[in-house]
Design a protein that fits this description.
The protein is α+β, with helices and mostly antiparallel strands and 286 residues long. The chain has 8 helices and 18 strands. The strands form 4 sheets. Strands 2, 5, 7, 8, 9, 12, 13, 15 and 17 form a 9-stranded antiparallel sheet that branches. It has a 4-stranded antiparallel sheet with strand order 6-14-10-11, with no helix packed on it. It has a 3-stranded antiparallel sheet with strand order 1-18-16, with no helix packed on it.
């Protein structure tokens, strides 16, 4: 009954209005609002401030400044194995495996379309047909910056407006096509292993999604927008493995897509396995 009511609330709630309200308070610099909010959050979610670059909760400008806090040097070493695929974020594995018949596994009894996930573009979807996917869920207590699984060059970015369902285990199991219907930013890269996508998926009360090259990515009239970067006279935007590429202001999910036959996920990783940014979650085979 609790699950059914929670899912029903997800469908009935004014998702975008709640997110705008949450965003207002998350950016508020008034001390008597931000201070108790940050203190409550640290206590409620048992946030370990000792690993933050700045461990003083009171010094943050506002809640989002605290929420997207950088970590102290050395806290998240990037796997130095030459063929390692670095985990893009702290959190836990939601699912990982192979993309089969253009479908991606979400949870028991739930899957969604690869083409829909990348914004409906058939050409982009074909790059990952029969390829590999890994979905990483970032919980509230986690480090909320997203990093590159492999070195690569940015090709394009697609902003896909959509719903803002929660992305926890309960909704993944009960909301059809969850990751293909929520708002998301699809980032496409070329790598030595072929095409790679890192997709930042929004969720309930996620105030915004940012990338390091474009800043805040916000919806405009609910239309899909695409930016092409590696064309014409544009200076290539290159990343090394482990470089920061984006962040969530109030966190969500990162999905990594790779092409056919190029990756082998670590056998010990499965749904709900805890992961840390930078650890190896598989290896490139080419």
């Amino acid at each position: 009954m609790k699950t059914a009511l929670f899912v029903l609330f997800q469908h009935l709630a004014p998702q975008h209005l709640l997110s705008h309200v949450a965003g207002f308070f998350a950016e508020c610099t008034v001390s008597w609002i931000k201070k108790p909010l940050i203190e409550w959050f640290i206590k409620r979610y048992k946030v370990d401030m000792s690993i933050a670059a700045n461990p003083d909760p009171e010094s943050y400008q506002h809640f989002n400044d605290f929420f997207t806090r950088p970590l102290a040097e050395g806290q998240r070493p990037i796997s130095d194995e030459p063929n390692a695929i670095a985990c893009p974020a702290d959190g836990c594995i939601s699912q990982l495996g192979k993309i089969e018949h253009g479908r991606i596994f979400q949870a028991k009894g739930q899957e969604y379309s690869l083409q829909e996930l990348v914004g409906g573009d058939k050409a982009h979807a074909e790059k990952f047909q029969n390829g590999h996917f890994a979905t990483v869920y970032l919980s509230p207590k986690d480090y909320h910056r997203v990093h590159m699984p492999l070195a690569g060059t940015l090709e394009s970015m697609i902003h896909v407006p959509g719903d803002l369902f929660s992305v926890n285990e309960t909704t993944a199991e009960n909301v059809p096509r969850l990751f293909a219907r929520n708002e998301r930013v699809v980032c496409l890269f070329s790598t030595t292993a072929g095409p790679m996508a890192v997709i930042l998926v929004g969720a309930m009360i996620v105030a915004s999604i940012e990338t390091t090259w474009a800043g805040l990515v916000t919806p405009i009239k609910k239309q899909i927008r695409t930016w092409d970067y590696n064309v014409g006279n544009n200076t290539p935007i290159n990343f090394e493995k482990g470089d920061e590429m984006g962040r969530f202001k109030l966190g969500s999910t990162a999905i990594v897509l790779l092409g056919e036959g190029v990756a082998d996920w670590t056998e010990t990783l499965e749904a709900q396995s805890p992961v840390l940014m930078g650890q190896s979650m598989g290896e490139i085979l080419v």
